Amino acid sequence: MIDFTPFVRRRFVKIAERTDSWSSSTDDLQLSVLRSLIKRGGDCEYASRYDLKEILNSSNIYKDYVSRVPIVEYESLRPFVMRMIRGEKNVLWRGGCRDYAQSSGTSGGKSKYIPITSDSLNGNHYRGGEDVVAHYLRMVPESKMFSGKGFILGGSFSNTLGISAGKVHIGDLSATLINKINPLANIVRVPDKKTALLPDWETKLPALVKAALDVDVTNISGVPSWFLTVIRKIMEMKGVDKISDVWPNLEVFFHGGISFEPYRDEYRRITDPLKMHFQETYNASEGFFAVQNDFSDNSMLLIVDKDVFYEFIPVDGDDKRPRPIWEVEKDVVYELLISSSNGLWRYRLGDTIRVTQTSPVKIRIAGRTKCFINAFGEELMEDNAERAIAAACDICEASILNYTAAPVFAKNGKRGRHQWLIEWEKTPVDLEMFAMKLDEELRKLNSDYDAKRNHTIFLDPPEVISAPSGLFDRWLKSAGTHKLGGQRKVPRLSNKRDMMEQLLAMI
């Protein structure tokens, strides 16, 4: 195959270079995005009820915007979204919308259906994908990623609402991205669209393996846990211990969806360390928000000019007033609030991020607002868990496939503890030693957890249980909206024991 990289590099690098000015222009870019959103979406029913078009020429458009538009969670928007799915136009955004990303359930257990409008698809999601490639080619001038093919691991459509697939498409965001992509992209990617969108994972897995088995794959994109399943099957079929023996020109993994830290060592082991790069992305159902632009820095550059206006609510402290981007502070954890061209106006995303740099703004994902353990005042967040379990794996020479954790509450005079259920890629020799190291790392990372563990007065050491092979896959397949598939994610932390009890009952 001809190496197209030299022909496209200059265009992509130019896209990346625009971010060099963001240290001084972020505020203006974000205000420009807000004005553009109001100008294009201000005539829809939802925006009209707040007379948003009236503030377009305001000298302080942000102040007027937040004074008119309330902060909302998904349940407040569900009736509007359902009307859009049934075919109504100009509801949350201009025109109609036929594509919806089915996302994780809310606290009420129902799935969310996020509108993927033409504006958000072309002005945010696809352009965010361009940014990923642009920054990669800028960081790796010797790249030959377009000399072979990209292996994109995506999800599928579903029809959980019983609505004709001919009128509306509902499923994973990646399914819409694959379905709508320019057909010319098929020249440089595998698998074909039909295989990529297969709904049954048990049928899809062997089809994916067959599609990529004898192809010169130079780059892969997807969720780390699910891609590892595919890669292991390919290595098994080829009788090798490293995927680089199958794909000798593999040079980059564009990953997102879940933390990469627990999987980093295993991916390093099975790839060529002299060639391989790992680039993190933050592409949620609601929008493409950030991309890693420096391999020496695990934080990501917040994309500020692609149809998303951000606000930030401090997680700690008494002042929960949302801040615009020009008021954020370094090393503070915030809940993200977005306004975007998919009709989400001042929407609580449910994600928390830590600001690692303010000029330009760079972030790390801290976790979910509803994915934590705080049964004993320990305030254990997902970011703490991911970093601690990765460190414990490194110390104990172990690697994982999946895990979840939940509290065991104090009972019959016994103190409470955290219970960790882990499916291993490589099991530690000493499980008790692993539990001890996990505990030590959590105490280093989280002062509240450390205080509760101090002298084992309030909280006992964590309990680690080894899960049998395939347990989490079976749970995903049986758990309703969390069906088996390339974009489905196991909740890492839960403040309740419902999920843990379901999993333990399956052992």
Task: Annotate the secondary structure layout.
Layout: H1 5-17, H2 22-41, H3 45-48, H4 61-68, H5 74-85, E1 99-103, E2 112-115, H6 118-139, E3 149-152, E4 157-158, E5 169-171, H7 173-180, E6 189-190, H8 193-196, H9 201-212, E7 217-222, H10 224-238, E8 252-255, H11 261-270, E9 277-284, E10 287-291, E11 300-302, E12 308-314, E13 333-340, E14 347-358, E15 361-368, E16 372-373, E17 380-381, H12 382-396, E18 399-408, E19 417-426, H13 431-445, H14 447-453, E20 463-466, H15 471-478, H16 498-506
Parallel strand pairs: 1-5, 3-6, 3-7, 7-8, 8-9, 19-20
Antiparallel strand pairs: 1-2, 4-5, 9-10, 10-11, 11-15, 12-13, 13-14, 14-15, 16-17, 18-19
- Average pLDDT confidence is 91
Give the strand tally.
Answer: 20
How would you sum up the major sheet? Answer: 11 strands, mixed
The backbone outline, from C-alpha atoms, is globular
Q: Helix proportion of residues, in percent?
A: 25-40%
Q: Structural class given helices, strands, pairing?
A: alpha/beta
Distance between the termini: 48 Å
From the alpha carbons, calculate the radius of gyration and give it in angstroms.
23 Å
